[in-house]
Amino acid sequence: MRTYSVVVLVTLALFPTLDTRDATVGDTRADLPRFSGKSLECPTGYDTWPVVGASLGLSYSKHSDGGPGSFHRVYMNPSAYAAFKKTGEFPDGTTFVLSIHEARERGSILRGGFYEGAAEALEASVKDRSRFPTGWAYFDFGNGSRKSAAAFDDNQCHACHSAHGEKDSVFVQFYPNLRRTQ
Ligand code: HEC
Which long-range contacts (CB under 8 A, 24 or more apart) does 137-146 make? Predict the structure, then answer.
């Protein structure tokens, strides 16, 4: 056991910046963002990540059809989630996935309420201070079928996030698993 630990430590000391391209499932690096050129590959396996918050009908654009709005679910990659719980900061490599579903009303035995219907949108944000001047970049994968996406201009996404997101451009005020007061 002791020999094994020494080997691991020596290996880590010799290769401190291991390449994430070789990451495999079960490996803590597997949840880090992957880029091809300037595009982010659509995060895979995010459905197994911690959900930090969920909401119904949050609206910050002008259009509303008067219905309940859509369901939002926000996932965070597990390695960054663990780091945030420990330090209260978002490390480089932090990835959020915002999955949006329509609110569906009738079905099966239902007599009231709403459940998640068709997928409407899948968006992501990534923190990487060496790659992005503001530290964060934002991506849109359509309804989830797009394999990769280029980053939006800062004025399209980051401007609102940096002005109103309570912690480091992230809307932690809406996420019970990340905000301090429940
Ligand atoms: C006018 C303000 C505003 C703009 C512009 C905006 N967002 Fe957001 N965003 C929010 C709010 C509020 C939330 C909180 C959670 C939610 O909406 O479900 C959020 C949450 C998110 C999250 C979850 C992580 C986080 O930072 O809280 C992602 C990912 C995201 N937005 C992507 C985008 C993308 C991509 C764009 C640009 C196309 C964008 N946003 C533009 C207000 C904005």
Answer: 137/40, 139/40, 141/42, 143/118, 143/119, 144/42, 144/99, 144/119, 146/42, 146/122
CB distance 95 to 43 below 8 Å: yes
What are the mean pLDDT values of the chain's consecutive 10-residue runs (182 residues total)?
51 46 54 94 97 94 79 98 97 98 92 96 98 97 96 97 98 95 66
Tokens of 85: 């719980």
Count other C-beta atoms under 10 Å from residue 86's C-beta: 9
Exposed (0-12), middle (13-18) or buried (19+): which is 153, by Cβ within 10 Å? exposed
Q: Which residues form the pocket of ligand 1, taking CB atoms under 6 Å from any ligand atom?
A: 55, 58, 60, 72, 74, 96, 98, 123-125, 138-140, 152, 156-157, 160-161, 165, 170-171, 174
What is the residue with the minimal CA distance to atom 37 of ligand 1?
Answer: 157
